[in-house]
Specification:
two-stranded parallel sheet; alpha+beta; 84 residues
Length: 84
């Protein structure tokens, strides 16, 4: 059985992610929410200004996108973000 860990992440790419999720579920993948901190990518302390916060969310979203895409592409190794 194939598993994909879904990161807990800020809102913003919900539509994109649900589209990918549908395709993957059709391909036989199961989803599991990240339960432990070790499974969630650590991020820097909260930014104070809204501008930098928005920039950081954008950065995280694109990183998550790339990570998920490389995972979907069939990398044999689990991405470094998920220890174990």
């Amino acid at each position: 059985m194939k598993w994909i860990v879904v990161l807990r992440r800020s809102k913003g790419i919900g539509d994109w992610e649900s589209g990918i999720r549908c395709k993957l579920q059709a391909a036989g993948y199961k989803f599991q929410a990240a339960r432990h901190k070790s499974q969630v990518v650590s991020c820097k302390p909260q930014a104070t200004s809204r501008k930098t916060q928005a920039a950081r969310h954008k950065e995280q979203d694109s990183a998550a996108r790339v990570r998920m895409m490389s995972f979907v592409a069939g990398e044999s190794k689990v991405p470094k973000a998920f220890p174990g």
